[in-house]
Each structure stands twice: as C-alpha cells, then as structure tokens.
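Batch queue: ligand-bound targets. Current item pairs a single chain with zinc ion. No template structures supplied; prediction is de novo from sequence plus SMILES. Inputs echoed for audit trail.
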Amino acid sequence: MRQKTINRSIDCSGIGLHSGRKVRLTLRPAEEDSGVRFVVVNDSGRHLITPSPEAVVSTQLATTLHNGAAAVSTVEHLLASVRALGIDNIEIELDGSEVPIMDGSAASFVYLLRLAGLRSQTRPAAYLAVTETVELEKDGKYVRAEPYDGFRVDYTIDFPHPLIGRQAMSFELTPEAFARRLAKARTFGFVREVEYLRSKGLALGGSLDNAVVLDEDGVINADGLRFKDEFVRHKILDFIGDTAVLEAPLRGRFEVFASGHGLNNAFVRKLWSESGRCLERVVPGAGQAPSRRPHLSEPLAQPAAAVA
Ligand SMILES: [Zn+2]
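Prediction returned. Tokens below.
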C-alpha cells in the first residue's frame, strides 16, 4: 500500500460550532511523509498544527488541537474522514480556529474528499499496529484494544433515554463502509445541555441543522433520525476521529463501552506513551521504523470531561 494524498485542492465554507461564524476550509494535496497538517490563518499569521495525542484538549463540545500558539476545534469528523478514506498526506487550511460543523456528520467531508479525488504516491504507507492487549477503564466506561489485522470497533452505548437505551454495533473500517454506514450519522445532544451551553456563550453555531437534539421523550428535529441507531454510529465515527490524531493509521480491534472524547483521548495517549510495548510502527517492505515525530515529554494539556 502506497501513501495517498488528494488529487487537487478543494474548498467549502460553513459555520463554526463554537463561534457561530462562517469559516472557510481548504483541503490541499501534500507531499509524501508530511502527514496530516492543519494551517490556521488568523490576524497573527499562519499557524501550523500537527495532530498528536498530546496536542488534544477535549472540550464539552468537540475535540480541539493546540500547538501552544494557536488552536483548532471540532477536528474529529474531518480527521475520521481523512483516515477512513486512506489519505496519508493532506494540508487542511482554515481562516478561523474551528473546522465548520456542516450538518454535524462527516458526510460533507467524505463528499469533498471524493470530489477532489485520491492519488497514490510512491513511498509505502506506514501504520501503527497494536501488539498487545491494552485497556483503559474509568467509572465503568472503557476502551480495550487487541492485535487485529485491520481496524475493527465493537461499540456499545447505554444512555438512560427512551429513544437511545442500549445500542451496539460492530464496524470494520473500509472507505466504502465508512461512507455507507457512519458518515451520515450526526452528533447529538440534549435540550438541557444546549440551554446550559448557550447560557455560557458556547455552541453559538449549534442548531437543529447540525445536531440531533433530544428532549425527555424523543428527537425534536422535524425530520427525525437518519438511522434508528444513529447514536452509536456517531460514537464510532467520533472514535475513529479521536484515534486519527496518531501519526499513522491504527491497526487493531477495539472494544468500547460508553466512551467519549475525553476517555478516547486518554486511551490514545496511553497507547502512544507505551508504544514499543503495545504499539509498533510498521512500514511495509521496511520492517519496524522509528516514529518520525519525537514524543513530547510533557502533555500540553490534560483532557477534560466531554460529551458527544
Ligand atoms: Zn462527533
């Protein structure tokens, strides 16, 4: 398998979930071995932000990446799409500090990336293989990983809500399966949370156009759900996005119960900090190779509690 990038630059614009302001997103082809990079252009210049487990600051709303000087929020649905389509190298430029929320799903990003087209490069694509069972548990929620030749997620959620309840789904990652089964599943939240966030001046761009919103009994969106189990599908999409902050695609089987952005990131940090013991970087044809990015000795920020 050779490295891939997109064929041509493509852009779109949408609303930022936090600010409610319009943001322009430009996706550009990138050279081999350059990986996935965000470029945030603001009044103080162009800021390069490279995803890594330590660069993540989880918030109540979405996953944010920080490089010390600049930040970019709501990265997970776009990163999930980039990984799912097998793209190794891409530059993601934004004229604001958040990725547009679009309709709250990954469908627009998959559409955009496919419209740009994919192109194979010459060097082999590296991946990170789980080599031992690893588990992280917190308050009855957990993520467990074991070696597997592919990327498979078995996810269960259990929300005390009449419309959600217990939902479970097994998912084997391929570009087609991602586009067909996960990409359209939207983020979700509860009316009481939305009211609280609004009172704090947060989620100013959040609306029924970009989230499934639930009251005590059901969904308040006029069109209802896109899938009966849209909630667990979105949780798997988020899990793929939250693990996509690693420098290369992961290979493993993941059993996940009731996790969210905060626990997902804590799990990825654990995997990464123990790489060598439970994670191995493989370059097909070249055997084991050292990581191209150095470990940071100190995390930039601790993950905070998070919701979907
Ligand atoms: Zn999400």
